[in-house]
Write a structure and sequence with these properties.
This protein is α+β, with helices and mostly antiparallel strands. The protein is built from 11 helices and 6 strands. It is elongated and about 85 Å long.
């Protein structure tokens, strides 16, 4: 199907995804360079490794240079494990994020002082902006590389979850800031570095939490159960206008003892008001229940993968189907 501008819908959607990935990366780079780096806080990911190298070399080697070099090195090792598509998408994200951080680092570090002098406020604000940026990248199927690559490799080669692998990796990176150059005794080093390490943990946690909220919020789903004499018209309208599947069930009203058709519809939370208006526009007397569901998995929604270890240590992946898909089989 062509749009008025000549683009197919799929191509237009792809272009929009890449634009939003770039916007998310710019947000991440701004949050890091403006609020986190000036306070010498080391956060998780390859950005944190780049920060370690930056301050260990007396601000000689830019964060962006270390980050990009390590991304390419990790991708070279991961190519056969994580697949060509992941590598191509990650190279794009890693390139844009390194360029963005390079520009932001040069500008904000040249100021000679943080924008916000209060370290706590600056760290929290920077973490929130970074998390929102990463979440924006993720919901549009992007990747900025970094520990995503390490976690994906670990997940492919073992039963360790991606989340756990990333947490362990990030904790090691943040904790390594205690070894940065320091003039003084070991006790003075601990006194000076431990608060910075704690800030690093806080930044990493808050950024991860904000990213998760963006991703989870985007995936929240709603289930409708609809009773109506106009069930056929409603089902067609939901299929054709809302572009969502409908499952038709047979029921019986126990009071009337009459058979009735029951419609079940699943949609994204953002689509729920439109479907509600659609149903009420057809049958104002329709009986509707609306409930939030933890997740909807299958075609048109999210893929849920369950890994099962077989006797030969091979991994089997199971994917769930919607009721409509099962019926079509």
């Amino acid at each position: 199907m062509k749009t008025m501008f000549g683009f197919s819908i799929s191509r237009k959607s792809l272009i929009f995804d890449y634009i939003m990935i770039i916007v998310g990366i710019f947000m991440y780079a701004f949050g890091f360079c403006a609020f986190i780096l000036p306070h010498k806080i080391v956060m998780g990911g390859l950005t944190g490794v780049g920060t370690l190298v930056y301050f260990a070399t007396n601000e000689t080697i830019p964060v962006a240079a270390t980050q990009y070099a390590l991304n390419l090195l990790l991708l070279a090792f991961a190519f056969r494990i994580v697949g060509k598509t992941f590598v191509i998408r990650t190279i794009f994200g890693a390139t844009v994020v390194s360029l963005s951080i390079g520009v932001g680092e040069a500008f904000f570090m040249s100021l000679g002082h943080p924008i916000l002098e209060d370290m706590s406020l600056s760290a929290i604000l920077g973490a929130i902006i970074c998390g929102l940026g990463v979440g924006t990248v993720l919901i549009h199927n992007g990747s900025t590389g970094g520990t995503d690559i390490v976690a994906s490799m670990v997940n492919k080669l073992s039963n360790v979850s991606i989340g756990r692998a990333m947490v362990i990796t990030d904790m090691v990176i943040v904790s390594s800031s205690i070894f940065l150059p320091f003039d003084g005794t070991f006790g003075e080093r601990l006194e000076a570095r431990v608060p910075i390490i704690v800030y690093g943990y806080v930044v990493t946690f808050v950024a991860s939490y904000c990213a998760d909220m963006i991703v989870v919020g985007n995936r929240q789903a709603v289930q409708f159960i609809i009773f109506s004499r106009e069930w056929q018209t409603i089902a067609d309208a939901v299929n054709n206008e809302a572009k969502r599947g409908v499952t038709v069930l047979d029921g019986e009203g126990w009071y009337s003892k009459k058979p009735i058709k029951i419609l079940m519809v699943w949609c994204r939370k953002i689509e729920a008001p439109g479907i509600m208006r659609l149903v009420k526009g057809i049958d104002d007397d329709a009986f509707i229940t609306q409930g939030a569901v933890n997740g909807v998995f299958g075609k048109g929604f999210d893929m849920y993968k369950v890994k099962i270890k077989s006797k030969k240590n091979h991994t089997t992946t199971l994917q769930t189907d919607t009721a409509e898909q099962i019926g079509q089989r």
